[in-house]
Write a structure and sequence with these properties.
Structural class: mainly alpha
Helix content: 55-70%
Strand content: under 5%
Number of helices: 23
Radius of gyration: 31 Å
Order of helices and strands: HHHHHHHHHHHHHHHHHHHHHEEEEHEEEH
Shape: elongated
Strand order of the largest sheet: 4-3-7-6-5
Largest sheet: 5 strands, antiparallel
Length: 662
């Protein structure tokens, strides 16, 4: 492996606290003051620079405590870098050929040929090879290509975290709908297998994930809708309360689905929305309507189609504009600055040919050509300012609030440069770094909140119930998000959403625990002290072999001694030779309608009556030997099932619990 200069490590790891340009300048000045070259700095020298020069610089944007913490993290990374091994012959060639090295690193992303970053990198590599073969400098092209590689690596890592979260949710949903059978369930199973394998290999499969999400959305809607049908068939008319609850759940599913679809559309068309303020305004209006739950799935699909068409129209317009700009350049006399402009123009042409927009390049070309026409002697300096302004604008897009704050100032600076005048960008960098500091402190807050959720979950992860299962999936997602380095704007938004959802689940769990305590007080026993979800009966309560309550006897449990017998609600196959995979009971009007009556079930009826009083509609429970679940089925009606594991319960009675149908 070809080692990178050590100074690149702090520039990369601290790039969310201060701009890369500012960090490199601090390091360069510190190296020069010590009589050293930046590329030759070793770990010990960098440690001294980080503790003094960089630490002071970071305090311009973040508190000293945070600056120190981040510097110490960089030092830990620096001193963990292994000694470089002798380079192989091919690696020596790559070290001496930066374009070939860039091309070698880009091979990792060949699968993601439709990414705008990949398409632009291919354009840059094509022009860099031509320029290098002619003996001209390719430093600026290689630098931009390296920046694109960093963006692509970040996008890949963020994508893998998101894909892992999607995969966990897909698997959980599959467990609920598996009993429905049919072609869609089989397709979902196959897609989950493909995504799972890709995740293990560190590969993204966005198309497969989207198809799997669409199938689960369809199946979950079908499952929820069947609840009303089952109540109607059992009682003659739909139960109004259950019907309203099911409708609310279906609407929540639709809101979740369209929100995710719109987020994906916004990511895929980010460049178009930046280039077309009119479309961006429409997109924001649609987002607001989606948040209110007033947008159907079909409307979001229509919006994607409209943006696809708008992308092609904008692409054609930019190609026409580029042709006009090229004619304008051809009319000017040859010069060094003119050749640099032509390189930018050629990169833009190849980018457009790849199918990506070249909005930023066209803006730069307009201003530069204007300067070449009227003040050619200033062109080189103006072009350097334009590159700096473009870097500032790209950085601002990833910092919350910065782009909006700086938009007008960036536009004014671009107009000044187009007139052939120098623009003072220092104040703009200062504003940007202020927002970067605020974002870094927000990230610290996010990480602290994630740590809290993870600790809370780890303390209760052994308990049963759907809330705990959902919380567990979110805790795993937060662990992965917590490990990410500097985040894109979209990844930061997903992190915030994961935190909000996880904290809501924690609050729900606490409320459910309090409700369980109220039931315990009614029974007058410490029967449910270890519950987290809606009644997880995991603590030991006195009972003899027949299930008769005798107080808090050691080693006995309230539901642990129910005899193994199949229920009347659904026929199931056995997971073991001695007992069925799942057992079921049906409660109607507060009485046992189907299933053997035992002392334990009689006690359970009292518990279900208390749940009715509290307005609860679902109970997930666990004892020393079994897991239990009860679902409301009309006024004072319940479907109850138990099995050895939650997987057995879902497979053997999950559909019956949800719908009343075997």
């Amino acid at each position: 492996m070809i080692p990178q200069p050590l100074y690149k490590i702090p520039v990369k790891l601290l790039g969310d606290l201060a701009s890369s340009r500012a960090l490199e300048k601090v390091l360069q000045d510190a190296a020069s003051s010590r009589g050293l070259a930046l590329e030759s700095l070793d770990a010990d020298t960098l440690e001294d620079i980080l503790k003094k020069d960089v630490y002071r610089r970071l305090q311009h944007t973040v508190p000293a405590v945070l600056a120190k913490k981040r510097v110490m993290e960089v030092l830990k990374e620096l001193h963990s870098v292994p000694e470089p091994a002798p380079l192989r012959t091919t690696e020596v060639r790559l070290v001496n050929d930066p374009v070939a090295l860039l091309e070698e690193k880009a091979k990792k992303f060949n699968l993601y040929f439709d990414w705008p970053e990949t398409q632009r990198l291919r354009s840059i590599l094509g022009i860099a090879k031509t320029e290098g073969a002619a003996g001209r400098s390719v430093e600026s092209l290689v630098q931009e290509g390296s920046g694109l590689l960093e963006q692509m690596e970040r996008r890949l890592q963020e994508g893998l975290v998101e894909q892992a979260q999607d995969l966990a949710e897909l698997k959980a949903t599959f467990g609920r709908v598996q009993g429905m059978g049919g072609r869609d369930v089989k397709r979902l199973e196959n897609l989950i297998g493909q995504i799972d394998e890709a995740q293990e290999q560190g590969t993204l499969l966005p198309g497969e994930v989207e198809r799997a999400r669409n199938i689960t959305f369809k199946l979950r809607k079908s499952l929820e809708s069947s609840v009303v049908e089952s109540v109607t068939s059992a009682q003659g008319v739909p139960d109004a309360v259950i019907q309203a609850e099911v409708q609310a759940r279906v609407q929540a599913l639709e809101l979740e689905h369209v929100t995710r679809q719109l987020a994906d559309i916004q990511r895929d068309h980010a460049a178009l929305l930046r280039a077309r303020p009119d479309l961006n305004a429409q997109n924001e209006e649609l987002r607001a309507r989606v948040s209110l739950g007033s947008v159907a799935v079909e409307a979001v699909q229509d919006w994607r189609a409209a943006l696809d068409a708008a992308h092609q129209d904008t692409l054609a317009q930019q190609r026409q504009e580029l042709t006009a700009l090229e004619a304008q350049l051809d009319a000017l006399p040859d010069s060094t600055a003119g050749h640099e402009v032509r390189v930018t123009l050629d990169v833009a042409r190849l980018t457009l040919q790849e199918g990506s927009l070249a909005t930023d390049e066209l803006l730069e070309l307009r201003g530069t050509l204007n300067v070449l026409e009227h003040s050619p002697e200033l062109a080189a300096r103006i072009m350097e300012h334009q590159r700096e302004l473009a870097e500032l604008e790209r950085t601002a897009r990833e910092v919350p609030g910065a782009e909006e704050e700086l938009r007008r100032s960036i536009t004014e600076a671009r107009e000044v440069l187009a007139r052939g005048q120098d623009a003072e960008l220092g104040p703009l960098w200062a504003v940007l770094e202020r927002f970067m500091g605020e974002a870094a402190q927000q990230r610290e807050n996010f990480d602290a909140r994630a740590d809290h959720v993870i600790r809370e979950y780890d303390s209760v992860r052994s308990l049963a119930g759907e809330t705990i299962q959902r919380l567990g999936r979110l805790a795993e997602a937060l662990r992965a998000q917590r490990r990410l380095g500097p985040m894109s704007a979209q990844a930061r938004e997903r992190y915030a959403l994961s935190l909000t959802d996880a904290e809501a689940l924690l609050a729900e769990a606490r409320a459910e625990y309090q409700a369980a305590q109220e039931v315990t007080a009614t029974f007058g026993q410490d029967a449910l002290s270890d519950l987290l979800d809606v009644f997880n009966l995991g603590s030991e309560i006195g009972g003899d072999a027949g299930g008769t309550s005798t107080g808090a006897g050691a080693g006995s449990s309230f539901l642990g001694d129910v005899p193994a017998m199949s229920g009347a609600g659904v026929a199931v196959s056995g997971a073991a030779a001695s007992e069925p995979r799942a057992e079921t009971w049906l409660i109607e009007d507060g009485h046992l309608a189907h299933g053997p009556e035992t002392a334990t079930i009689t006690g359970l009826l009292s518990l279900l009556a208390q749940a009715d009083t509290l307005g609860l509609h679902r109970l997930d429970m666990g004892d020393q030997t079994h897991v239990w679940s009860a679902r409301a089925a009309g006024p004072r009606g319940w479907r109850v099932a138990r099995a050895l594991t939650w997987d057995d319960l879902d497979a053997g009675a999950g559909r019956w619990l949800d719908t009343g149908e075997a």
